[in-house]
Amino acid sequence: MGDQKRRRGRKPKNPVADTMDFQMNNTETTSSAAIDDVFSVGNVEIAEDDSPVASTGRGRPCKVAKHADTSAVASPVRNISRVVENNGECVLAVSVAGDIARHSSVVEPPPRWENVVKVVPSMDAVVKVFCVHTEPNFSLPWQRKRQYSSSSSGFIIGGRRVLTNAHSVEHHTQVKLKKRGSDTKYLATVLAIGTECDIAMLTVNDDEFWEGVSPVEFGSLPALQDAVTVVGYPIGGDTISVTSGVVSRMEILSYVHGSTELLGLQIDAAINSGNSGGPAFNDKGNCVGIAFQSLKHEDVENIGYVIPTPVIMHFIIDYERNKEYTGFPTLGVEWQKMENPDLRMAMGMTSDQKGVRIRRVEPTAPESQVLKPSDILLSFDGIDIANDGTVPFRHGERIGFSYLVSQKYTGENSVVKVLRNSEIFEFNIKLATYKRLIPAHIKGRPPSYYIIAGFVFTTVSVPYLRSEYGKDYEYDAPVKLLDKHLHAMAQSEDEQLVVVSQVLVADINIGYEDIVNTQVLAFNGKPVKNLKSLASMVENCDDEFLKFELEYQQLVVLQTKIAKAATLDIVTTHCIPSAMSEDLK
């Protein structure tokens, strides 16, 4: 399962892990964000009054009530069940008593149902999340797409806060919460969105929302085969749903929404669309995770994934420390396993030394000042790293050493021990978040664009590739862009990959109409570092010609004065409010 591709979207030929949104509907149109292959299997639904249901064979269901005779002193004996009519409602009563004769001669009144049913507090803390999304239109970056709605799950924690999944409230314009058994939807405010860990934190200003609800308590990391119960509001009904299973696996997982790898739990409880953001409880009623994605494939059944408590607590503590989400730090290196004995010998390692070889160091990472390619990373914060890149986790378990890095916070220091030219060095490094040349998210900001003579320049991100080429962009996007997406490293913090997104046809750009999604390398002989620098160079250009050097050795040449004069007419024709986005002005 570890080598399967996990990403959001429709079901391809290979197994895919999907983040579990509920149905995303619009009354007039079907959103492209709707999740395919949605079904509901094995959910046990609990009625709003938390009453189990039994059949009497008399044409309607009956509630099962159990009450005890506290006056009995002998060993309790289960009495014969009887059916009692209570205000037209069928109640199947089971009494426990020590004196069978006394109960056979005296018919007690049926118990009041609200007195004998104990509501589970943890389930009352589970809420339904309603969200209206308005996504940016990356292909036409000056406008947004048609809005659509979705519903998912969440749960109340201490401090008047609610946790759900980040993808449940992504690009939100309005978020509302509804408690179990309530007919009122309360407006919510999004406090923080953690894209990497797929967690979002909400709050509600209305005091009425918090009345009579006990927050969920967090438990420790479960062990394999520990029982878990997933609670939420999945597809198949409007009431709360409960599915149960056990912890099947625990390892570093690929988080589909965040395009990152963090600790995750695999469970065999059914997780369907709408379960996103719902809590997973252990047998003590404590929350041990948040449901967030599942594996969809014809060869697998009931494989769901849960965000474990270490990741959840990291998100919460990060927000409490910084009043915002700052992310999970990374070491900023690419590494190679050292399992081959000849490779270890060539690197100068002794028989008792273990570690991994550093292949590349991120130029923007603080580690680039001290770590070098071909260094052997021996330990992190005093914990030895094995030749396969794992460290001891729990009894009988090992896990990738990136888990140790992810437990740190942005800006914290760590001690790494490396082997370089047969000498051991120790470095105290400051951890930071990962700067990608092609970012996985734009974090709620509208996309940047710049238009000159009908040429639409913009920056490449994963959402942009998905917008242009669909959910299978990893197969359909241009090879040059995919190569940079998978392997290129940003050389500076402000570096961006700038492309000609499209050409809005006009007389001035005749012959250039077919240029689509091609990278801009240089302008008038100067390298293009980011979109803002390109816009600045073009706007301040006094040369006779505008010369754009593109990928594949393409060259675009325009007369400066004519190009700038034609821009206003072109944006007016296409009803574009401005020739550049607000962040470039």
UniProtKB/TrEMBL annotation:
GO terms for biological process: proteolysis. SUPFAM superfamilies: PDZ domain-like, Trypsin-like serine proteases. Keywords: Hydrolase, Protease, Serine protease. Transmembrane segments: none annotated. Residues 438-583 form the Protease Do-like PDZ domain. The keyword Transcription regulation does not apply. The keyword Hydrolase applies. GO terms for molecular function: serine-type endopeptidase activity. It comes from the Eukaryota. PANTHER family: PROTEASE DO-LIKE 9 (PTHR45980:SF18), PTHR45980. Belongs to the peptidase S1C family. This is Protease Do-like 9 isoform X1.
